[in-house]
Amino acid sequence: MSPSTPPEDDPGFPAATAPHTATAAGLDAAVATCRACPRLVAWREEAARTKRKAYLDWEYWARPVPGFGPADAALAITGLAPAAHGGNRTGRVFTGDPSGDALFAALHDVGLASQAVATHRGDGLELYGVRITMPVHCAPPGNRPTTAERDTCRPWLARELELLRPTLRTVVVLGGFAWQALLPVLAGAGWCLPRPRPAFGHGTEVLLVDVRGRDHGELRLVGGYHPSQRNMFTRTLTPAMLRDVLQRGAETAGLPRR
Predict the structure, then answer these.
(1) Are 62 and 35 in contact (CB under 8 A)?
(2) Which of 13, 15, 40, 171 is the most exposed place for a label (fewest CB within 10 A)?
(3) Name one GO biological process term (predicted).
(4) Tens-place pLDDT, residues 11-37
(5) Is residue 217 domain-resident?
(6) Tens digits of per-residue pLDDT, 157-186?
(7) What band does 211 get if pLDDT is binned at 50, 70 and 90?
(8) Given the DSSP bridges, would you call strands 170-174 and 130-133 parallel, antiparallel or unpaired?
(9) What CA–CA distance (Å, rounded) separates 72 from 203?
(10) Whole-angstrom Cα distance, residue 188 to residue 183?
């Protein structure tokens, strides 16, 4: 960190740091040091102290959870935020909670993951052509980040998508929160959004054009319901619906079938 960079607990830390990360690995390392949102820091660390009974022998990650997947992915998946006893425990997005159980099973079914189960970092799981990220990198109370927390965290997402840009073709957006968080990031990066801005819906597809005329000037968004425990229990989202959205993402990104 240079003398001019705000400390990790300054609200300006993400905006000052993210644009200067040169690689996805560097970005992931910087994300994991962030303490810019006091409410989220307090919540993620409290969850690590109190723990759930089933995880008493775990040493919780209790830091911001970085993205996961190859740095040259053609497909990105955006969720909401880590779960307090899922990603906040394991240190990997969508790992160790019911949402992750549903997502990785579906990714494996459509040939985008090496295994159907994700339990912890270092469990051997690999993603093929896919990187998973989120607009808020810390577990929020009640799974509800504030708009201020979302906006403070936004530079991390913007830089991650910028680093992916040479290869990125499609983004599968899981949930309305992620959809609303992503659109201004894409607009700021030079993607032309339709007017009025497209509303979120399961199966919604939007094709964006790069108004700056750079190579690979199209990006497709595919909306899908978030695989939350509630959505899966009520069958608002079924495993087949989730597989279909991910398969559509893979096809539009040009990923080969496995």
Answers:
(1) no
(2) 15
(3) base-excision repair
(4) 999 999 999 999 999 999 999 999 999
(5) yes
(6) 999 999 999 999 999 999 999 999 999 999
(7) confident
(8) unpaired
(9) 25
(10) 9
Within-domain flag for 6: no
Domain count for the chain, please give it.
1
Say if CB 94 and CB 118 are below 8 A apart: yes
Domain that holds residue 207: 13-252
Nearby residues of 189 by Cβ (< 8 Å), 6 or more positions away: 158, 161, 162, 165
**Confidence at residue 63, expressed as pLDDT on a 0 to 100 scale:** 98
Tell me: pLDDT of 217 over 90.
no
DSSP string for residues in 149-202:
HHHHHHHHHHHHHHHHTTT--EEEEESHHHHHHHHHHHHHTTEE--SSPPPP-T
Min mean pLDDT across 13-27, 73-87, 114-128, 200-214 is at 200-214
In the chain, the largest separation of any two C-alpha atoms, in whole Å, equals 54
| 54 in a structural domain | yes
Contact, 75 vs 130, CB < 8 A?
A: yes
Give 5's pLDDT tier (boundaries 50, 70, 90): confident
Name the CA radius of gyration of the chain, rounded.
Answer: 17
Q: How far is CA 71 from CA 14, 162, 250, in A?
A: 20, 11, 16
Question: Per the domain annotation, does 7 fall within a domain?
Answer: no
Give me the CATH number covering residue 175. Answer: 3.40.470.10
